[in-house]
């Protein structure tokens, strides 16, 4: 598995945006050098957002968006890591890339002393269910 994972910042956002375009339109576009606007920069600087992209051969082919959600009360001041989005380009699936990205959630959970990692998955997405089970998650309810 010859891949790397970068945290997304304003400096590498154009490459990330190229991947988002690929996901939305189903085709790659020429690499962009456009800088992110002020709203994107503000979001990227949010200390609770942790955005990572997985690259292969100089392009990003997947990403995970993690959000730290602070908690008080029964969790004793230890929040949760929420998996907001996880996506791998279809031609690159089945290579362990999604599991590599999910490892970022576990590492962030440890680094922030969070109570755990949470996510929601569509009941009509059996591939995602299998992935999350392989990553050690168990279904705890439906919403």
Report what the structure shows:
It is built from 4 helices and 5 strands; from the N terminus they run E-H-H-E-E-E-H-E-H. The chain has helices spanning 13-25, 38-44, 97-111, 126-134; strands spanning 4-7, 49-56, 59-69, 80-88, 116-119. The N and C termini lie far apart (35 Å). A 5-stranded mixed β-sheet has the order 1-2-3-4-5, with helices on both faces. It is of the alpha+beta class and 143 residues long. Helix 3 (97-111) links the parallel strand 4 (80-88) and strand 5.
Features:
alpha+beta; 4 helices; globular; 143 residues; five-stranded mixed β-sheet
Summarize the model shown:
The protein has 143 residues and is α+β, with helices and mostly antiparallel strands. It is built from four helices and five strands; from the N terminus they run βααβββαβα.
Average of the residue pLDDT scores: 93
Show unreliable segments: none
Helix content: 25-40%
- The separation of the N and C termini measures 35 Å
Number of E-type strands:
5
Globally, the shape reads globular
β-strand amount:
25-35%
- Sheet/helix structural class: alpha+beta
Radius of gyration: 16 Å
Strand order of the largest sheet: 1-2-3-4-5
How would a textbook summarize the main sheet? 5 strands, mixed
Number of DSSP helical runs: 4
Summarize the helix and strand pattern as letters.
EHHEEEHEH
């Amino acid at each position: 598995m010859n891949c790397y994972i970068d945290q997304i910042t304003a400096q590498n956002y154009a490459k990330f945006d190229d991947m988002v375009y690929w996901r939305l339109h189903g085709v790659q576009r020429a690499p962009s050098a456009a800088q992110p606007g002020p709203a994107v920069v503000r979001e990227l600087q949010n200390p609770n957002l942790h955005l990572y992209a997985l690259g292969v051969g100089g392009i990003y082919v997947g990403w995970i968006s993690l959000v730290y959600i602070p908690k008080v009360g029964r969790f004793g001041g230890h929040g949760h890591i929420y998996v907001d989005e996880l996506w791998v380009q279809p031609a690159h699936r089945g290579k362990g890339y999604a599991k590599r990205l999910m490892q970022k959630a576990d590492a962030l959970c440890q680094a922030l002393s969070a109570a755990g990692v949470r996510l929601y998955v569509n009941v009509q997405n059996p591939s995602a269910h299998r992935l999350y089970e392989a990553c050690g998650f168990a279904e705890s309810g439906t919403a």
